[in-house]
Design goal:
Helix 1 packs antiparallel against helix 4. The chain is built from 5 helices and no strands.
Length: 171
Amino acid sequence: MVAANADVGQAKSAYFPSLRLTTSLGRESRMLEDLFSPASLLWNVASSLAQPVFRAGAVGAVVEGSEARKRQAVGQYVQTVQNAFRDVHDSLNNAASNAEIDVSTQSRLSAVRETYRLSNLRYQSGYSAYVEVLNAQRDLMQAEIAAIDSQRAKLSSGVALYKAVGGGWGQ
């Protein structure tokens, strides 16, 4: 955006006349009296002052082009900022929801462990068949897998959040 703004300023400077310190033949003046000779001064000043008047349409088009590039750069900047805010917002939501899922998964895991413990006690006391213990054990393994997956998702969302807010990565 800064470069586009500078381009607009540079394009607008073409509206103003420019004076060059050259002789009438376009060479650099070596001697001061050649620089201010009437013929040299007349042609340089007259052509330099008249130039922006005759090129006003062309200069205007260059300025409009520069301003259009500036508007495009501003639009891209705004879009980039909006995308960054959206990424942070999404990462915050994901981190919060994954943390809630992890809490509920851990409480489910505790409940399934208690169910397994009780089914094992019932089997040892002779009140139930071993199939009940096997079912409870299978449920416990699935709950442990779900708990591991939820912890992984929670940690991954933390990394995504760190990345979205611009966390530094060691190189």
